[in-house]
Design a protein that fits this description.
Structural class: alpha/beta
Shape: elongated
Distance between the termini: 37 Å
Order of helices and strands: EHEEHEHEHEHEHEEEHEHEHHEHEH
Helix content: 25-40%
Strand content: 15-25%
Largest sheet: 10 strands, mixed
Radius of gyration: 25 Å
Strand order of the largest sheet: 1-8-2-3-7-4-6-5-9-10
Number of strands: 14
């Protein structure tokens, strides 16, 4: 077994290690590489003898994990991902989450070698690491596919440094690239799908609470009192999105609204209630609630009525910045409180137009891997 010690601070050495790993994989050898979680043992899908050696290493002699250099490469491996699978992958990848897909179907144009290597009893495992040489190798190996399995010890403990790999994998390995200890020092989380049914089969660096938040895809609308604008947006969005889901265009999302100030438990304003009724939407169940850290942390997307509301959100939870935007990109939506029904009608029309754009945006987002 050849061993290369690699310093991440030396770009020339890293390029050389990448080239040597690619050459070894294309020659049908087994290579040990680091990810952000553990070291893995890898082979190229085009090399069936190397794939057989990897499978022999596994206790169940079965499923290997496809490692993707970029999340969008998943579409070349699986033809029938669920909306929820893409939704969570878009949030988690690149990162320490392995997605297992039951009843998986590779695209018709997948070559026989890749199909045989990646698919085991109608099941695929997919992962897109975000650090470690494995990430770079997976991208550079395309159009070939990188498959791997954890370089676990006989005890089942993960190999989180190259010395552990060298001690226990020399009978299988041809090349070991030593990048030092892995960053997370623990195996990836594993999320299993069968259609839209899902379960976390291994808790790892990404906990089930965060996975559930990503899967819920919660949308939160924010205004001042949660009695006029944000409940209008919530009602109109929920009705439009539910229609799209019933038409088979997406998966459900949790929808809510809140106010930066005002009394909790207050019904919706009469003017907003009239506008929802005019659109066939029942306003009777709405009760105002204040904006909280918990609501913001649970939300996948946060839409505010004004720039001031956006600042209030970020003052409360600065980490929400990438997920927070004005509902109407053209500008603020004025508060109709205390004004005529015509003012509520204009407000509702502006909200409805903005909501339709956001609905299409989120439906399109759910069709993509990244």
């Amino acid at each position: 077994m050849e061993r290369i010690s690699l310093s991440s601070s030396d770009p020339a050495a890293r390029r050389d290690a990448l080239d040597r790993a690619l050459r070894a994989l294309r020659e049908g050898r087994v290579v040990a590489l680091a990810t952000e979680t553990v070291y893995g043992l890898f082979a190229a899908a085009s090399q069936p003898q190397a794939i057989a050696r990897l499978r022999a290493r596994r206790r169940d002699a079965g499923l290997l994990t496809v490692h993707l250099g970029r999340p969008a490469a998943a579409e070349k491996i699986i033809a029938n991902p669920s909306t929820l699978m893409r939704r969570v992958a878009r949030r988690a990848w690149p990162g320490p989450l392995t997605i297992v897909a039951r009843s998986a179907q590779p695209p018709d144009n997948v070559d026989a070698a890749t199909r045989a290597a990646a698919l085991f009893e109608d099941t695929l495992a997919l992962r897109s690491p975000n650090t470690g040489l494995a990430h770079e190798v997976a991208a550079a190996l395309e159009p070939d596919t990188l498959l791997g399995t954890g370089a676990s010890l006989e005890s089942g403990a993960p190999a989180t440094n190259a010395d552990l790999v060298a001690e226990h994998g020399t009978d299988l390995l041809d090349l070991l690239i030593d990048e030092g200890p892995t960053r997370l020092k623990a195996p990836s989380s594993v999320l299993e799908f069968d259609g839209d049914r899902w379960k976390v089969t291994r808790e790892g660096p990404i906990g089930e609470r965060l996975i559930r938040r990503w899967l819920d895809g919660a949308v939160l609308f924010v205004c001042t009192g949660n009695t006029c604008r944000s409940p209008l947006a919530e009602g109109i969005f929920r009705a439009a999105y539910d229609r799209a889901v019933k038409a088979g265009r997406g998966a459900p999302r949790v929808v809510a609204s809140a106010g930066t100030s005002g009394a909790s438990g207050v019904p919706m304003s009469e003017g907003s209630a009239v506008e929802l009724k005019n659109r066939g939407i029942d306003p009777s169940r709405h009760r105002a609630q204040g904006l909280t850290v918990e609501l913001l942390q649970a939300a996948d997307r946060i839409f505010t009525m004004t720039a001031r509301h956006r600042r209030s959100v970020l003052d409360l939870v600065p980490a929400c910045e990438p997920r927070t935007a004005l509902l109407d990109p053209a500008g603020d939506i004025a508060d109709p409180v205390g004004m005529s029904q015509d003012a509520y009608a204009r407000c509702a029309a502006q909200i409805e137009s903005a909501v339709q754009r956001r609905v299409e945006e989120l439906l399109d987002e759910d069709r993509r891997w990244e």
